[in-house]
Amino acid sequence: MKIQFRWLVVFGAILIQLALGAIYAWSVFTPLLIDPHGYYQFSAQQTAWIFSTGLAFLQEPWLLQESCSNKSVLVLLQF
């Protein structure tokens, strides 16, 4: 049982590193997205919304797992 728990911790650490890498990658690509002469020409507010939405969807499984008994959170996530 102890060995299985150890691998669960390793798997969780890898997932956290992937999430942190995605946040870092976003900070690298943001200047390209908001460049007024670039291909995308997003505003800073639009890129912030895209990033926030991405983080919300990244956190959604965690919220569902932590608050399975709280039905109001599930209802709020659907809107």
Instruction: Supply the helix-strand structural class.
Output: mainly alpha
Question: What is the domain tally?
Answer: 1
Shape: elongated
Percent of residues in beta strands: under 5%
Low-confidence stretches: none
Q: How far from one another are the termini?
A: 40 Å
Helical proportion, percent range: over 70%
Number of strands: 0
- With helices defined by DSSP (H or I, 4 residues minimum), what is the helix count? 3
| Alpha-carbon Rg, integer | 17 Å
Mean pLDDT: 76
**Elements, N to C (H/E):** HHH
Describe the largest sheet: none
Structure description:
It is a single chain. With 79 residues, the chain is mainly alpha-helical. The protein has one domain. 80% of the residues lie in helices and 0% in strands. It has three helices and no strands. It is elongated. The mean pLDDT is 76.
Write a short abstract of this structure:
With 79 residues, this protein is mainly alpha-helical. The chain has helices spanning 2-34, 44-66, 71-77. The termini are far apart.
List the helices and strands and how they pair.
Layout (H helix, E strand, L loop, with lengths): L1 H33 L9 H23 L4 H7 L2
Helix pairs in contact: 1-2
